[in-house]
Specification:
6-stranded parallel sheet; Rossmann fold; 370 residues; single chain; globular; alpha/beta; 14 strands
Length: 370
Amino acid sequence: MTDQVVLPPLCRNVASRESVRVASVPAGHVYVRHCADPQGADGVVRLTDPRPNGAPSTSQRWWPPVMLDPAWVDAHHDEFDVFHLHFGFDAQGPAALHRLVEALRRHGKPLVYTVHDLRNPHQADPGPHRDALDVLVPAADALITLTPGAADEIAARWNRTPTVLPHPHVVGAPLIDRPRAPRDGFRVGVHAKSLRPNMAVLPVVRALAESLTDLPDAELAVNIHREVGDPDAHAHDPSTMAALEDLAGRGLLTLRVHDYFDDEQLWEYLGGLDLSVLPYTFGTHSGWLEACHDLGTLVAAPDCGYYAQQRPCLSYGHSQRHGLDADSLHEVVEWAYRTRPRWRATAEGRAAERTRIAAAHRQLYTELLG
């Protein structure tokens, strides 16, 4: 386990300054919402996400982000002081991002970029995201990232030094301190979702099924979205679905096929696991891991990316380059089964951390604005 990020001392006079208006892309994502001071004491006002064309008036959808359009910047530049980019630029090529940067420069607006992903988990081809980073990282007036390892990689690739701030809580405070429901057995979960490009589900599931065979009262629960079995869906993958159904039919796992969970369903699912195994072959950071930390569910994360630097978790060998190290996964599962560690956040600790994260953002914005 790697040492965790240590936040700088809290700047106590942040709240006394004038408010800072931030055009955040997006504003509605849970990560961004929880970078704000819970009492509003940071004095940061984030613009509401403009509704994309075609989105209903009742929708909270923020993608594709309207704020990435240089025409939006030209029309609304007097409504914000700082432009802060997080997610949502997957469809923006380098030329479009250059035009965004030029629009911000034209109106004297600082650009802050939080580097969540050094490799986009939704894109099989690393090229487009790499090209986007080659525009954004050099152009940003300030950079933030979530772990020291990611910061070191950014320094090595672009000679830029980001501010390292941890990921804030994902789950709401009342649930963070709620006692876990007592139950028998040892439940290991793999959520295949809609088979994101960075997932290698079947090798991990097969290795887990073998590992759990010799562990009394241990069970493997695999969840997958319904669209994987839908011939009309983009995520349709009949071979993977057939393989999982075969394993379930042989009694090696319990398979649950469902639509996307809402937050309440997701927290209930995660809270019912003893160990959540992330079947990723590439990536950088994980909000899923943070949610598990909030709920007291142990995580086994691959040794690619910087997951182990986010929160206390177990690591096993798994990457696009080297494939799965099944022996290391077996060792992780056996250790978790024997020791049953409880590495869990507290509501008080997460609240204090969130206050400091918010203050650090405010301080960075204030320094950019002079």
